[in-house]
Amino acid sequence: MPVADAERKRWSDWEAVCAWLRAQQGEAALCVFYDARRAFRLALIGPRSGKARPPVSGNFRRWSLLVQQGYPNRTFSERVPLLMRADSREALLEVFDAEAVGHAFYAAYVKIFQKSVVSGIYGEGSRQEYQDCFLAFTVRVLFLSFVAKKGWLGDQGARFLLWLLERYQTVAQQEEATGFYNRWLRPLFFEAFRAAPSAKTARFRTLPEDIAIIYRDAPFLNGELFRRQPFDARLALTDEAIARFFPCSMGSILFL
Residues 18-31: pLDDT tens digits? Predict the structure, then answer.
């Protein structure tokens, strides 16, 4: 079914399917919403438990998996084999089940944590500090992905961090293993979000101008997430570890 923007979940896009199900007295439907950018959302529309939502959606709800050009689409790739083997409504629901996806996401992150990211943390610290550093980095990256998806970090959308890494690899002289983290991510984490745009007009002069503009225009976030922690002064992630981590983290935000 063609839609204007597959990334956005609009009632108007799927109420036509709900109306068709009501007319056919059907229980569920598996459909694809796609747009002109070749993004698509594989959706399962089925019975809703609890209070129904008007107007014609009736007692239906939707589960979906989003696929976009240029993204890892990790969740979709991992769930499709289950879809091909589904032989019951319960099995089909498990493909789209947020809790099941969450468990798979956690297991994938543990694997990355153990095999690649922790080994890519550079600096002196305890095992607990390494874990704290990884957890803080993970949460910051996921939150930044959400902020970027809202269009608050330039026009790259959810792909902003991958684009930022690619931009660094293009223009920076990679003289140190942790250059991307120290020179580009530290200013983003600990300066760009710690002050209002009007207070950052003279900052980030060591960065390319297009990056500096994005950092200066970043919104002020008055919270603990981007406040420096003790381990932040001693630990950093290597460019290699970040390059392994970013594709997985980008894939995680596309399950909506």
Answer: 888 888 888 788 88
